[in-house]
Design a protein that fits this description.
By secondary structure, this protein is mainly beta. 7% of the residues lie in helices and 45% in strands. Strands 12-11-10-9-17-16-15-14-13 form a 9-stranded antiparallel beta sheet, with no helix packed on it. Strands 4-1-8 form a 3-stranded antiparallel beta sheet, with no helix packed on it. A 3-stranded antiparallel beta sheet has the order 5-6-7, with no helix packed on it.
């Protein structure tokens, strides 16, 4: 009798919806995110290393006032970033997450891109779609809610039709470099499906 009661409670808790303000997917929707450098002396720099360890080579560095760094993940006190065409790692204690990037929020996507053929979709300050076949302006992107917290829909009007797609929070590579992005996209346009990655890093 006791075993049956415990089994019932286990199933009930497993199937019950999460309490408001909580989620059953604690790691979903948190990355990528923008961070600012903090706690670094004005005459010093924050090193970007080849691996999550001080024993790995230094690839580059951030200035002590660097802002809006795109972080793909944080693991064991190290933040994964992109530097040039490589993946780098920064000591997370010197980074501060920007506010307004909560669970379920649509990240501030600046641009999406893919290959075969090469295409670029501007979703930030400039709205456009460029490919070898056409270069057109685009309207304001409309983001659509999803029943899953790790993805959302996209609709955008372009000069010759409507582009629709799904953006997912997952590791993504463009296949051209060693960099890794935190958003993958599948777009439907002109009766074709295009796949690619998106970034929230501001242009520099």
């Amino acid at each position: 009798m006791v075993r049956r009661a415990l089994t019932f409670l286990f199933i009930w808790f497993a199937l019950s919806p999460p309490v408001q303000g909580q989620t059953s997917y604690p790691d979903w929707g948190l990355f990528p995110a923008l961070y600012d450098v903090t706690g670094v002396a004005a005459d010093d720099v924050l090193n970007i290393r080849a691996g999550p360890s001080t024993d790995t080579p230094i690839l580059s560095s951030y200035a002590p006032d660097r802002t809006a760094i795109e972080v793909m993940a944080v693991t064991s006190g190290w933040a994964q970033v992109n530097v040039g065409e490589q993946v780098g790692w920064v000591a997370a204690r010197f980074l501060e997450r920007r506010p307004g990037q909560e669970f379920g929020d649509v990240p501030p996507i600046r641009i999406c891109f893919g290959a075969e053929p090469f295409w670029t979709l501007g979703l930030g300050d400039a709205h456009f779609y460029h490919s070898p076949m056409e270069q057109v302006t685009a309207g304001q992107p409309v983001y659509l809610p999803s029943t899953r917290p790790d993805r959302f829909g996209l609709r955008i009007d372009v000069e010759h039709g409507i582009m629709r797609g799904v953006i997912r929070r997952t590791a993504c590579s463009d296949g051209m470099a060693d960099t890794t992005y935190g958003l993958a996209v599948d777009l439907i346009y002109r009766d074709a499906v295009m796949t690619g990655c998106c970034t929230i890093a501001p242009a520099r």
